[in-house]
Design a protein that fits this description.
Number of domains: 1
Distance between the termini: 73 Å
Order of helices and strands: HEEEEEEEEEHEEEEEEEEEEEEHHEEE
Oligomer: single chain
Radius of gyration: 24 Å
Number of helices: 4
Structural class: mainly beta
Bound molecules: copper (II) ion
CATH architecture: Sandwich
CATH topology: Immunoglobulin-like
Helix content: under 10%
CATH class: Mainly Beta
Strand content: 25-35%
Length: about 425
């Protein structure tokens, strides 16, 4: 009996003890001879992303990362010149299993040198990837190889440690997910998200690395809402969301419709005695947070950063406050000098999405409107770091099931249009 047989049988037994553990999640496949994953393990879903393929060579998992300039789209209508790996930002997720030995070739096709740092992984010092400290820089055109054994499971990240301010601002980053050989806390849905921020000035095509705090695009896996994939789960499933943050801001990530526990960081699993229930967890800059919960309430539940400016797309921040300022009388006069001038903001900014949808406002070239999301009841007035957890009693597949229809009598409804209404 091979190691693989032993593992899969043991894990099948383990899965059988957990109600619906295999629950349509589909078995992950792995061609490795020695370290096959549990057949009950839910496949990792990197929203809008993919995992990096590997080859087994003499018991070692071989990966190849290519650092290069790429064309990236945040949402239709906004393309930039970014830097990433293997054609995308973030780069593909590197998936492996605790105990795996990995060999990762890094080819540099950038116009400047780079390195790769394996964030949160304990490894020999010469593999840590800080250019100048642990290794020479990888010059343009060169390929370096890193090789180490993954001793601990959990959510980790990779990014350059060379001209880091520029290279991270340009999009160079990715997730590393190390699965335990046998998961004592199995989930049926396993999602991975990497948070980032971007400064793409209106009408331009290249992120500005000199911006320190005032970014104008906030992304999950390089996309803005509503282009971020929803997380589709069946009622009753155990769900894990892994959130990494290589942006320059902390993000308080807030989940509607479930109470979760933070079960892991980029240094591994948190003991159960140190986990407490929450609905919002801060994901620190340069850190990862794994949350787990049971999806017990069907519906469409928002999952978003609670800094409200981070659920907006390209917006200017240094503007006079128009709230409560009567501007409409000025419109005709200003229009004489600025044809097409149109005031807004007197009563709030919700009208902005209406105006951009109606093409009242032309946004500058290659610039997204502040908010674009639409739901079954109208504009969602959000963009940026937001997606939807879609919990359904019945699912044919994990494809987007569309919007939730609240059963009769369970949705907030209008009862009056009289502003002096008294119940
Ligand atoms: Cu945020």
């Amino acid at each position: 009996m091979t190691d693989r047989d032993t593992l899969s049988r043991r894990q099948l037994l383990l899965a059988a003890g957990v109600a619906g553990a295999a629950g349509g999640a589909g078995a992950a496949t792995d061609t490795g001879p020695a370290r096959a994953p549990s057949s009950s393990r839910a496949p990792l879903v990197t929203l809008n992303g993919r995992s990096l393929p590997f080859k087994m060579k003499g018991g070692v998992k071989e990966f190849h990362l290519i650092a290069e300039e790429i064309e990236h789209e945040f949402a239709p209508g906004t393309r930039i010149k970014a830097w990433g790996y293997n054609g995308s930002t973030p780069g593909p997720t590197i998936e492996a299993i605790e105990g795996d030995r990995v060999r990762i070739f890094v080819t540099n096709k950038l116009p400047e040198h780079t390195t790769v740092h394996w964030h949160g992984i304990l490894l020999p010092n010469g593999m840590d990837g800080v250019g100048g400290l642990n290794q020479p820089q990888i010059a343009p055109g060169e390929t370096y190889v890193y090789e180490f054994t993954l001793r601990e499971s959990g959510t980790r990240m990779y990014h350059p440690h060379a001209d880091e301010m520029v290279q991270v601002a340009m999009g160079m980053m990715g997730l590393i997910i190390i699965h335990p050989r046998v998961d004592p806390h199995p989930v049926q849905r396993d999602f991975a998200i990497l948070l980032h921020n971007w400064a793409v000035h209106p009408g331009t095509y290249r992120p500005d690395p000199s911006v320190m705090t005032d970014f104008n695009l906030w992304t999950m896996n390089g996309k803005v809402f509503p282009m971020i994939d929803p997380m589709v789960v069946r009622t009753g499933q155990r769900v894990r969301i892994r959130i990494g943050n290589l942006s320059m801001h902390e993000h308080p990530m807030h989940l509607h419709g479930a109470h979760f526990k933070v079960v892991g960081t980029d240094a591994g699993r948190i003991p159960e005695s140190a986990q407490w229930p929450m609905t919002t967890s801060l994901v620190p800059v340069g850190g990862t947070v794994d949350i787990e919960f049971t999806a017990s309430l069907p519906g469409d539940w928002a999952f978003h950063c609670h800094k409200s400016h981070h659920t907006m797309n390209a917006m200017g921040h240094e503007i006079p406050n128009p709230l409560g300022v009567k501007q409409r009388d000025l419109d005709p006069q200003i229009s004489k000098h600025l044809p097409g001038y149109f005031s807004m903001g007197e009563h709030g900014m919700a009208e902005h999405q209406v105006h951009t949808d109606m093409s009242f406002h032309d946004t500058p070239e290659n610039t997204l409107p502040m908010a674009m999301g639409k739901g079954p009841y109208g504009n969602l007035e959000m963009g940026g770091m937001m997606t939807i957890l879609k919990v359904r009693d019945r699912l044919q597949s994990y494809a987007d099931p569309g919007f939730y229809e609240a059963p009769a009598g369970t949705r907030a409804r209008r009862v009056s249009q009289d502003p002096n209404f008294k119940p």
